[in-house]
Amino acid sequence: MTWSTRQLAELAGTTVKTVRHYHDMGVLELPERTANGYKQYRTAHLARLLQVKRLTEFGLSLSEIRAMGGQESPDDALDRLDAELAETIERLQRIRTELAATRASQAPLDIPARFGSLAERLSPEDRVMLTVFSGVLQETALEDLRTLMTEHAGEDADLDRLTVDARDEEIEAVARRLAGAMARDHARFPWLADPGSAALRGRASAEAALGNAVAERCNAAQLKALALAKEYLKEGRQDR
Length: 240
What we know:
The chain is an all-alpha fold. It folds into three domains: 5-72, Orthogonal Bundle (Multidrug-efflux Transporter Regulator, Chain: A, Domain 2), CATH 1.10.1660.10; 74-105; 111-235, no CATH class. Helices cover 66% and strands 2% of the residues. It has eleven helices and two strands; from the N terminus they run ααββααααααααα. The protein has helices at 5-12, 16-25, 43-58, 62-67, 75-105, 124-136, 139-151, 153-161, 168-188, 203-217, 220-235, and strands spanning 32-33, 39-40. It has a two-stranded antiparallel ribbon. A hairpin with a 5-residue loop joins strand 1 (32-33) and strand 2 (39-40). Helix 6 (124-136) runs antiparallel to helix 10 (203-217). It is rod-shaped, with a radius of gyration of 30 Å. The protein starts with a helix and ends in a 5-residue tail after the last helix. InterPro entries: DNA-bd_dom_put_sf (IPR009061), MerR-type_HTH_dom (IPR000551), MerR_fam (IPR047057). One of its GO terms (molecular function) is DNA-binding transcription factor activity. This is MerR family transcriptional regulator. Keywords: DNA-binding.
């Protein structure tokens, strides 16, 4: 018994357009034709069509299926596919965890859920900076940051009060207080002295992203205070 293209597609639960596409992509052989030009599909064509359909449902591309040469499940292709699926499942689980945390903390959607309890005191610039931090730092580092932001409201407020035209003595006073806080924080969380060591992926790209986020969040006086604080920290000249 033979089938037309429409009949073959119906048997396989697909469409005529898909059957023709599989022919074009070289994963389904063309059948013989009758004298009047109609295709005559046989059992082998139906089996191959069902096989290709099954493999595409697994996630294999048509080019990968074509390279397999008709074999149903070569180990290398399935191993690669299994690894890709595992990564997808892990990513979806992370998203679900983040959604659950966002619901529980009632955090705004424009900040990471773990910082939801701090949302009311965060400026739009802070939210942008934290979003960048969350994209480039490891989970443990982000949890450390949340702890520090909760504890250091005073030092953060000092820095935020520095206007772009702040006097040098104001900047220096804030820098000394910041240096004292930095010394204590670095002792608790050593990665703060070398943020690149806590990068989620590449060190160089993470350091660049962190630096840019801070630079765009702060005005010139605040950046000067941060730079001075780092100098005072190295020299041991900070408020205790």
